[in-house]
Amino acid sequence: MEKTSIPLEFEYEHIRYKGWATPSDKHHPDGKPASYHVVLNGVFFGNLSLNQGTWHIDEQRPDDLFLATAECLAKVAAR
Predict the structure, then answer these.
(1) DSSP assignment of 31-64, as one string?
(2) Cα–Cα distance, 48 to 73 (Å, whole number)
(3) HSE on the CB side for 66, CA within 13 Å?
(4) Of 4, 9, 33, 36, which sits with the fewest C-beta atoms within 10 Å of its C-beta?
(5) Which is nearest to 17 in space by CA: 58, 60, 73, 77?
(6) Residue 14: pLDDT band by 50, 70, 90 thresholds?
């Protein structure tokens, strides 16, 4: 099965971030991906996962930027 990347675009602290999130092969029982591999502005940002309503990341990133990224991903993935 071919993976489809989800486009991401948002602004944080007057910087425009553009990139994509690729869903993992693993899924939760509800069918949603267990995590997303995220690239922003051409740089690997981290793997974001949603567990029991809380977003997590496996890289050390500024909390506010991580939350802005997770919020953007949640909005786009819900479509």
Answers:
(1) S-BSEEEEEETTEEEEEEEEETTEEEESS---HH
(2) 9
(3) 15
(4) 4
(5) 73
(6) very high
Q: How far apart are the first and last CA of the chain?
A: 20
Question: Which pTM was predicted?
Answer: 0.89
25 DSSP assignment:
S
Identify the DSSP state of 29.
T
H or E element: which one contains 16? strand 15-23
Residue 4 to residue 42: CA distance in whole angstroms: 17
Q: H-helix or E-strand containing 19?
A: strand 15-23
Rounded to an integer, what is the distance from CA 4 to the centroid of its chain? Answer: 13
Instruction: For residue range 29-72, list pLDDT tens digits in order.
Output: 888 898 999 999 999 999 999 888 899 999 999 999 999 999 99
